[in-house]
Amino acid sequence: MELLKERILTDGVVKPGNVLKVDSFLNHQMDIDLINEIGREFRRRFPSEKITKILTIESSGIGIACIAAQYFHVPVVFAKKAQSINIDGEIYHTKVESFTHKKVYDVIVSKKFLGPEDHVLVIDDFLANGCALMGLISLIRDAGATIEGAGIVIEKGFQQGGKLIRETGIHLESLAVIDSMTDDSLTFR
């Protein structure tokens, strides 16, 4: 998606440790016009009418998933990174390691919102090592639901996540795949 790549080159900031900051337009301050185009592109890449839910993980994926959901006309479910008193009933649970935060989270989804009848599309902002995406896939499988695919805004193609997901046979679509990143530049596939 050329519009996204141009925005990454213009406003993205490469930080030491293979960290790409896109907080000025994607995951802190959000450029809604750009994210609207991202949602439209995900719909184009996942034309299945079977999709009944979009699943993401808090917090950066929520806004992107919500805007994408308007093109699918389905609800968004987001996996929470902590149990709270207002999550009642039974839950699906997994552990996810965050590349950015260097922390392991207990991730949960209420069984009320994900079940065997669902056909799920996962939407998230980044794919690096694949831990978050594998965790979401685990929740979908625990629910007995069908995974229809995974839509990622930015994939770090030089890390293992994309390869691991593709090897499982899951339909993975990344809108911008970064081939390499140094402290002062990046290249796309």
Tell me about this structure.
With 189 residues, this protein is α/β, with parallel strands linked by helices. The protein has five helices and ten strands. The strands form three sheets. The chain has a six-stranded mixed sheet, with helices on both faces. The chain has a two-stranded antiparallel sheet with strand order 1-2. A two-stranded antiparallel ribbon has the order 5-6. The longest helix has 14 residues.
Report the span from N to C terminus: 11 Å
The Rg value, from CA coordinates, equals 16 Å
| Sheet with most strands: strand arrangement | 4-3-7-8-9-10
CATH architecture title: 3-Layer(aba) Sandwich
Number of helices: 5
Low-confidence stretches: none
**Could you name the CATH topology?**
Rossmann fold
Shape, please? globular
CATH class designation: Alpha Beta
**Helical amount:** 25-40%
Q: Give the SSE string.
A: HEEHEHEEEEHEHEE
The main sheet comes to: 6 strands, mixed
Arithmetic mean pLDDT: 93
Strand content: 25-35%
